[in-house]
Amino acid sequence: MTFGQVLLVAVxxxxxxxxxxxxxxxxxRAARLVGxxxxxxxxxxxxxxxxxxxxxxxxxxxxxxVRPWHQLDLPWVxxxxxxxxxxxxxxxxxxxxxxxxxxxxxxxxTMWRVPDGGSGRALVALLLVVEVxxxxxxLALDLVLFFLFFxxxxxxxxxxxAGWGGADRRRAAxxxxxxxxxxxxxxxxxxxxxxxxAGTADLVTLTGGAGMSRGTQLxxxxxxxxxxxxxxxxxxxxxxxxxxxxQAPTVGSVVLAGVLLKMGTYGxxxxxxxxxxxxxRWAAPxxxxxxxxxxxxxSLVCLAQSDVKRLIAYSSVGHMGFVLLGVxxxxxxxxxxxxxxNVAHGVITGLLFFxxxxxxxxxxxxxxxxxxxxxxxxxxxxxLLAFAAIASLGLPGLAGFWGExxxxxxxxxxxxxxWTTLGVLAAVGGALTAAYFLRLLRQxxxxxxxxxxxxxxxxxxxxxLTAWVPLVLLALAIGLAPTLVLxxxxxxxxxxxxxxxx
Length: 502
Prior knowledge:
two-stranded antiparallel sheet
């Protein structure tokens, strides 16, 4: 095996073995430490995957649209012609690293604070199992293998919400499970349609349509797009998200918003658009309209929210709308905007949920009406919250700017009355994003301290800073140097657009 293949195996094997080791360790704190070490080793294995020269070359006619930097292709179920095919390129690698980083920060956070509801050992083990499922989804290059990894996430995330969540956690967990199962059924049918029509499950071969008829591609894209829309979630299939975020523990919300939602948008780009390009071209105007509806509806609902976590959760609907708008344009600029928007949302919203959890832990409430004057009692926490909110509203120089700005630019560049209108309306949605985040900051950080905020001390725990500082630095780094994401994704996106465009 090459060094790259060893890393691919390690990225999946280390958290899987770590989950087993955590479950087998009798002492709770020692088990959490073992899980944190496993998550750290996973990140160390994920970062060097970028060192693969083949992914940096430009697309050329006749070459495969998916050309991984590293890949592992082994027989899995020979009788069904299924293979254990893993690979990584510039589209998947940033999400692999983001997943490994956020899981590490969440595991490390549990060393300081374990939410009520169960043992820290069980929580960390479940976080590592979720990590295996998410990483496998980003690395799978076999469509059936992709589906299996996609499903691995469901039960452990359900358990995290139901076991360590808030007062209404069981209802929120059931809602999450039911919506996800609905998407899973659609995904399974879509996978069957593609594999039966093309005679292969290999994503490298399938990208570009693999000779499937137009009718088959339209049916496959519809099924796959709906399945991924549930996971992302995209409006109007988003109603499970606010409840899940509000009730989930802090680390659950971070993983859920930071990377689990990206499984849907990644699948939309890699699988739905790549495998059924004719279906993508046919549905592009509808996707664009739904994207802008998500941006506007998400923003307007945020303006009326009275709970911090629900506001941040609904903001994800709007941000995912910008990602979908970029994908719907089926242009290089649009796909690039979607990819950097994905990564930026994971970094910034992960930080926002960490901070929202810190505020709620200190004050005992997440209701906006009961929070005011945080800058008077905890100026450092208020400053970090302001930074995260401003990054999320898309201030130039911070990570949130690039995805939203270039999604709008891509829509305008497509041209025509429809896409120009969609671009203008999306820009209006961006202004509404600024409005609701500034409303959040005015309510929470300004004015005289409320009784709940008045008891908050100014200090920040070392574990909190350990979890938050990497996300602050990443939001700055991606904002100032977007080539960290766009540079590695340029060639794969060019290759994808090369086979999607007629």
